[in-house]
Amino acid sequence: MKIKVRVSHEEDTKYAFLICKKIKESAKIRGTGIAKKDPEYIKSKMIHGNAVIAFCDERLAGFSYLEIFHNEEFVVNSGLIVFPEFRKKGLAKIIKIEIFKLSRKKFPNSKIFSITTSNTVIKINTELGFNPVTFSELTHSEEFWKGCQSCANFDILTRNQRKMCLCTGLLYNPNTDKHKKDRNYFLSIGDKIVLAYSGGLDTSYCLKYLIQEKYEVHTVIINTGGFKKEELDKIEERALSIGSKSHKTIDAIEEYYQNCIKYLIFGNILKNNTYPLSVSSERIFQAIKIAQYATYIQAKAIAHGSTGAGNDQIRFDIAFQIICPDKITLSPIRDMKVSRKEEIEYLKNKGVSICWDQTKYSINKGIWGTSIGGKETLTSYHDFPEEAYLTKLRRKKSENLELEFEKGELVSVNKEKGNAINNIIKIEKIASEFAIGRGIHIGDTILGIKGRVAFEASAAIIIIKAHHLLEKHILTKWQLYWKEQLSNWYGMLLHEAQYLDPVMRDIEKFLKSTQERLTGTVDIILYPYRFHLVGIKSKFDLMTSSNMAQYGEMNYAWTAEDVKGFTKILSNQMKMYHNLNKKNHD
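^ that's the sequence the OP posted. Answer follows.
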């Protein structure tokens, strides 16, 4: 069941009579509560955005509104109704939370109160920070108390001079010491929000929605590679045209390489021996830079366009909570469960005329590879079509490629020196014409479900495989073994949003120490759709630098008797085990 609770608007007035009818029926069944509501009054609340309305599977399911008294000293949350067929689904709590948030947003300094006989509502309000109070602490407005006249228990209220009734009075006072601290956790009209903006449908929807909610929205994009200047310019133009107060492009490619890609190479990290963590490794650095920017411009909240079904929401949320815990995190699409179709319709109605339907595939392109999602990756059996990949086969004749590493870092391509980032880009340009580095990754998401994604990452795959070959020649058996164990952990923790855990710095120190001798060249041959590792040259090659022996040929460092003694000692424990086993069977 899809539940959607939102602030009301003028088009909702068509529901006013039905809502009033449901409130009356509910009060009659309970034998208490305000039974009579004026449809015209409810309509006015809807038109002015002073109500929330709930839908389940697009059917009207519930409602609540707010009223203001004593020049905004008091706000009351009233008229809560959940239609009978939608009860016991947690909808009342969602509506109460949303009307409370709306009250705090529009009237941040007002006291909010509620009177109710419902134990469920009392519990929800208590969780929100309300405290039980006497009626004397609530509004003295005659207009408010007059509204109780249609309640079956109104005579009890009048007999007690409005000091008590069957209802419990609940009050949220933002000016108490306890709730003064909570003010930072609620947004008000005009508050500054930083939105992580990519220029796509999801973040464009978030931008327009937050502007319509009357927030001051500033967009930012973090370039960790994969964008051309004209693409970044187009994204900025789109953000400003939709209504962003400002737009910022932050280059983080060098930081991304130094703090992450370098260690992915050192560790030869391929998720499930397949995927080079192209997108998952980027997100944490984008989140860190966004959090830093939000702090710099003193934003009150940070927003992102993640849905509720993917990994990125976790990566963004965790980074924001750690780096800037004072900021509110917003994710409109996740929070409101908005579908792609609803996003497109909303933007169209708000005058944002961009054709989003042309894109059949979601694409995330970065310096360490490109991930591609489509209808095929939502199944376990459909192959990914050739036309869906960004790069096409353009070269069919084989080509040689030489990579040179110094202390584990890529320093030259085909004997041309360059920094690591430029070398990665150069390899990508060469190898992508052979359509190398394609694959489909199936893995476990942070949320516990299986996920499937297509990718192309020619540079990442070639560099990792070449680096690994060089390591096989240079590192010892136990270095290789323990590197593999820790590298697998590093990749998994990075994928699962644990980059900021200090254990990651510990593993990085270990990985770096293993690269001290990792210097040499690797020869490769590129073919259509594949590549072949020819061999390596290094002064630290343990295979060629030894004068002890040649595998399978001749040895110079031991005698036949030495080997006989070695095998005798090496097999001691196995012989003991099998001898004991034999005695027990006899």
